[in-house]
Write a structure and sequence with these properties.
The structure holds 2 protein chains of 2 kinds. Chain A is an all-alpha fold. Chain A has one domain (57-266): MetI-like (MetI-like fold), CATH 1.10.3720.10. In chain A, 79% of the residues lie in helices and 0% in strands. The longest helix of chain A has 33 residues, at 234-266. Chain A is globular. By secondary structure, chain B is mostly helical. Chain B has one domain: MetI-like (MetI-like fold), CATH 1.10.3720.10. Chain B has a two-stranded antiparallel sheet with strand order 1-2. In chain B, strand 1 and strand 2 form a beta hairpin. In chain B, helix 3 crosses helix 7 (153-178) and helix 3 packs across helix 12. The radius of gyration of chain B is 24 Å and the shape is globular. The chains are: A mainly alpha, B mainly alpha. The interface between A and B is large, with 71 and 75 residues.
Chain lengths: 267, 280
């Protein structure tokens, strides 16, 4: 009896380890192949090289998508933080039951399949006769990403002492003094962390951008066209850079959202 | 805080928020519906209401083929993903000490936010004829010819499961951590076997989370285009392929009609899964 129980425990542990191999190994394979001498991503291993990184960095076709992605990423981060701040401040002032309903509704666009959002947005652009381009990418990515900002900012506002606002008014302040002198300084590290998270999402977002971009390319769209045309080992190098960049942003974002904030807000 | 001031601020913050929400989400969705009633003739969109697109779609064989392909993928993926994710989340909840839980969760979030296209592509490196798996099996002498793993339904399903499991593990873990911790230990102390505890005690308590998990993985795998394109290589004609192909020949009204049908289809399944949930 005890022995079979022990065996089940071992199998369960093995399952857990396998699960992590399953979600991590493909990306590791990508990173490993980016250093392979062989032009084709095949085994056996032919030797270590950095040539694909060199040829990627000397490839001028990568500059435009890169700068587009940065422009989109920074704009979308600011827009989502503003919408998120306004939305969360509205929702937190509702009655408790209504807060849950408003939150679920505001989350709807983020749960909408991106393919459907894409087709929705081009029919909207077509009806309004607006040209596809970088601006539509910024506008429509916000629909998909702002819900995340709303939810997370709402979560950090909940941790702020609610009597502070009244105290501020009693001392002769108004809503602007409250927001800019008290609220934003209190949750500033939260906001920075959420901003980084949004930037990561925007950086990786493909489907919506692809639909509304016209002939403009972001880094994700560039990856897509590279995958759809001749596969060169440069894609492995570019992929590795993108993955490491996202992971770096992400780790920073989580440290800022979790650690720093708790101290500031609860105090 | 003084309620009238609170009310005033609620409205001041509410106006721009709802304006953004309706102009960029609700109105576009309505536009999708309206566009699906237009038609496409002589390379131009004709803005006259007609049901031709729907008649056209429902009488074409390709619609049913693509729908069945996507439906099969979505059903297999959502069931398998939910099972795998449940046991992973349950493992973290019951077998990992408080100190290391944070790291386990962080490790699950990490792949979640790496580029979706690249994750699909990296699976093709693993599955292709010259890929890691076939190389290994050939080397071991287990097979004499490479297995055609890539460009198949299997590859799409595998890719989707690996994409969705991290999301669902987080969701189900959230459900588990909201449950009373004592329920599991009490049940085990009373001599109920763990498997029985899982099915009779744990699962009913987090039913809502499991339903959301199934539904979320269903809608994503039903409508995904990237995995069928990169791992299916176009061999499996999914519903998303149908939409993109229709859009690529500039027939936006018909593509919108296909989109509208998918929205309605998903809504009906959602209503079915969550029927009667409002009263709880």
């Amino acid at each position: 009896m005890n022995k079979s129980k022990h065996l089940i425990e071992v199998i369960y542990k093995a399952f857990f380890v396998l699960f992590f191999c399953f979600i991590f190994s493909p990306v590791l394979v990508l990173i490993i192949f980016s250093f392979n001498v062989d032009k084709y991503p095949t085994l056996p291993w032919k030797g270590f090289t950095l040539q694909w990184y060199k040829s990627l960095l000397s490839n001028s076709l990568i500059i435009e998508p890169l700068s587009n992605s940065i422009i989109v990423g920074i704009s979308i981060t600011l827009i989502c933080l503003i919408i998120g701040f306004i939305g969360a401040n509205h929702i937190i002032r509702l009655k408790k039951r209504k807060q849950d309903i408003a939150l679920s509704f505001s989350f709807l666009p983020a749960l909408f399949p991106t393919l459907l959002l894409g087709i929705t947005f081009i029919s909207y652009l077509s009806l309004l006769s607006i040209k596809q381009g970088i601006l539509p990418i910024i506008i429509f990515q916000s629909v998909y990403l702002a819900p995340i900002a709303i939810g997370l900012i709402y979560y950090s506002l909940r941790k702020v002492d609610s009597s502070l606002e009244q105290t501020c008014y009693d001392l002769g302040g108004n809503i602007f003094t409250y927001i800019f002198k008290i609220l934003i300084p209190l949750i500033k590290w939260n906001l920075v962390g959420i901003g980084l998270l949004i930037f990561t999402f925007s950086w990786d977002e493909f489907m919506i951008s692809w639909f509304v971009s016209g002939f403009n390319q972001t880094i994700s769209i560039k990856v897509w066209t590279m995958l759809k045309t001749a596969i060169s080992p440069e894609i492995n190098a570019l992929g590795t850079i993108i993955v490491l960049f996202s992971v770096g942003l992400l780790i920073t974002a989580f440290i800022l959202i979790n650690k720093k904030v708790k101290k500031d807000v609860i105090a | 805080m003084d309620p009238s001031r609170n009310n005033e601020l609620k409205i001041i913050f509410g106006i721009p928020f709802y304006l953004w929400y309706s102009l960029l989400f609700i109105v576009p969705v309505i536009t999708l519906l309206i566009t699906s009633l237009f038609s496409y003739k002589n390379y131009q969109i004709v803005r006259i209401i007609t049901f031709d697109n729907y008649l056209n779609i429902f009488t074409s064989k390709i619609f049913y083929i693509s729908l069945m392909n996507s439906l099969t993928i979505a059903i297999i993926v959502s069931i398998l993903t939910t099972i795998i994710s449940f046991f992973t989340a349950y493992f973290i909840h019951t077998r990992i000490s408080e100190k290391y839980k944070k790291f386990a969760i962080a490790a699950i979030i990490l792949p979640l936010l790496t580029n979706y296209l690249l994750r699909a592509y990296s699976w093709s490196l693993v599955l292709s004829n010259q890929g890691v798996i076939n190389w290994f099996l050939l080397k071991m002498g287990l097979i004499s010819e490479p297995l055609p793993l890539l460009f198949s339904k299997f590859a799409i399903i595998l890719g989707l499961i690996s994409f969705l499991t991290p999301i669902l593990v987080l969701l189900i873990y959230l459900g588990l951590s909201m449950m009373l911790r004592e329920t599991i230990t009490t049940s085990l102390d009373l001599g109920v076997s763990e498997l029985k505890t899982v099915f009779k005690v744990v699962m009913p308590q987090i039913k809502k989370f499991l339903l959301i998990a199934i539904f979320l993985s269903f809608i994503i795998s039903m409508s995904d285009y990237v995995m069928p394109a990169i791992l299916g290589g176009g061999n499996i004609y999914t519903y998303s392929y149908n939409i993109i192909d229709t859009n690529n020949i500039n027939n936006l009204p018909k593509a919108s009609a296909l989109g509208t049908i998918l929205v309605l289809f998903i809504t009906i399944i959602g209503l079915f899964l969550f029927r009667g949930k409002k009263n709880e």
